Amino acid sequence: MLRVFLIFWVCGGICVAAERPNILLIVADDVGYSDLGCYGGEIDTPHLDRMAEQGIRFSEFHVNPMCVVTRTSLMTGHEHSQSDNYRRSLPIARLMRDAGYATSIVGKWHQPGHPQDAGFEFFYGFLHGAINSWTGKENGHPAIQTNRDDPMAVADDWYSTDAFTDHAIRQINVATEAGRPFFTYLAYNAPHTPLHAPRKNVEKYYQRYRAGWDVLRLQRFQRLMDLGLIDDRYVMSEPEAEVRRWDELPQAIQRQESRRMAAYAGMLDRLDWNVGRVWKHLDEKGLSDNTLVVFLADNGGAYSNGDIRTYSQQIPWRKDSNPFVSNGWAYLKNTPFRWYKSCAQEGGVSVPLIVRWPGRLAAQSGGIRRQRLHVTDLYPTFLNLAGVKYPARDGDRVLQPLYGHSMLPLWNDPSLPKQSIHDEIFWGFNQTGKGLVKGDWKIASISDGPWRLYNITRDPAEARDLAKSNLAKLQEMSDAWFRFAQEQTTMPASWRSPLNAYREGWGFHRIRMVMPGYVRAVPAMSAMNVPATTSLTFHFDRKISFGETSGSTIRLYEVSDVHQPVWQSDPQPGHPAEGKRSITFSDLPVLKPDTTYFVLADPGWIWLGDKPAGPLNDGAYWYRFRTGQH
């Protein structure tokens, strides 16, 4: 057994001995930066707001672009590709267990192997990325299991967030009864899609979202300013064309959209209620003072969009439903930032972090810390609290040095310089999430497009791309990214291939799922200021054919009229594009100025190589652009 007492500095520079704390780590899935009330949101989160009042909030806490890669960093203290599926890492639960902690995980694992192979003594939840919150199923099959038992069907009245909370409370009791400190990881799947929530949690929000994402984003921005989480360096930036302008949508679509966001709000509302249940239990058991509670999200706010033809059929409290939100609501979730989960722009990697530890941090209650932090910093923080030293080796394995740094110095001295805990943050996930921040500067690439460059100290909301005006800094940062990727990670070569010279906007990674071999479009995906007189071109990396496409059309619509296309085409065999790798439509009408357009396409409207293209549905798979003011 490792030492039971930890020596550390607390307020006033007084050195005290403290019993090792219990640790309750709560992770919410796909929560945006400004969704919580204590981060400027309009969703009712009274228990998390109370946690902020009694604890500390962090305004510049960063995670990784996707849930799976953030969870790797959380469990290993490494950037995802440094860990190499744990081959170069030691999961934190092993060290906490060996230090005498009762280790348990409840909820979503989404990591290599099984949690009990990673040091968790108890597991209740699911192994992969998402489930139906009413049935506990993934892809139609039971996914909920206890420890290593086979997944089983759940009770008729089962709901994931409630059930995970029940089991977390039980594991706290098991540890307490055994006289052991607990390390309990409560990994909610909420509010990840599908957006399931009890009816009473959803319907209260129907009217709250009728104002639309544009107005509500302005309101969130102002509340963030009033709360002191942002300041006048932050710019209220405009989205690109993937976000439809609310005032262009027909009223029926606005009503429908407000209900879609109500489903998300209801799911987060229910999560907050369950967090309150855990705190009440800690209070009743006399555990609150010596329990460190950490709450964070695993990545920025998300969308899945669904299918424009089936939006109205998705009812959050029905077990057979599959509700999603659209890009516009994800744009709201991530106020004051742009873009979303999957990218290394701030909208994808900036999330709320709240810590509460009444017995040691009460003097800092309600505080806001503005130092740069990364999710990898939690691993060494927990080790410090447990009195554990990170080893250089694990048997015959040489372990990668930790990428993160303990937050304890910051908790003890709020006046530390901005980059005293964490300076460089590297992001590299697939083709959608590349980025690097170091010192005052940040680069980020979306869909392997050219780097954007920001002075992140002067422009924390990434409103001004300086790539063309500071080529030397751009090259320095780019070289640093590729050097880290080559020397410090085991990422696939395709993840670190040279960037493209052209820029596709948001949605490229989605459209490639249904149009294999898609390279780019003109106008570009999510392009702004498109001329009213334009053609439409799609480029692919394989040959085009039309042998079995008759009757399958591609159509262009204004967002204000989703029923009547302004243009359509049904390419037939013998089309000039047959056998080529691009297709151009030059017969579009003159388009309206300052208007968003989208494309719908039937499955099989074009064949690419030996496969038919899937549908474009202005939902999960969309292509949009916006004309300029002519």
Explain what you see.
This protein has 630 residues and is of the alpha+beta class. Helix content is 25%, strand content 21%. The protein has 15 helices and 32 strands. It has a 9-stranded mixed β-sheet with strand order 10-7-6-11-3-12-13-4-14, with helices on both faces. The protein has a 5-stranded mixed β-sheet with strand order 23-32-29-26-27, with no helix packed on it. A hairpin with a 2-residue loop joins strand 19 and strand 20. The radius of gyration is 25 Å and the shape is globular. The N terminus is likely disordered.
Architecture blueprint of SSEs:
Layout: E1 5-10, E2 14-19, E3 22-28, H1 46-54, E4 56-58, E5 61-62, H2 67-76, H3 80-83, H4 92-98, E6 102-108, E7 122-126, E8 137-138, E9 141-142, E10 145-146, H5 160-177, E11 182-187, H6 199-203, H7 213-227, H8 251-284, E12 291-297, H9 327-333, H10 346-349, E13 353-356, H11 358-361, E14 367-369, E15 373-374, H12 378-386, E16 393-394, E17 397-398, H13 408-412, E18 425-429, E19 433-438, E20 441-445, E21 452-455, H14 471-488, H15 508-514, E22 518-522, E23 527-530, E24 536-540, E25 544-545, E26 554-558, E27 567-569, E28 582-585, E29 596-601, E30 607-608, E31 611-612, E32 624-627
Parallel strand pairs: 3-11, 3-12, 4-14, 5-15, 6-7, 6-11, 23-32
Antiparallel strand pairs: 1-2, 4-13, 7-10, 8-9, 12-13, 16-17, 18-19, 19-20, 20-21, 22-24, 24-28, 25-30, 26-27, 26-29, 29-32, 30-31
Helix pairs in contact: 5-8, 7-9
Sheet with the most strands, sense and barrel status: 9 strands, mixed
Strand order of the largest sheet: 10-7-6-11-3-12-13-4-14
Structural class: alpha+beta
Total helical segments? 15
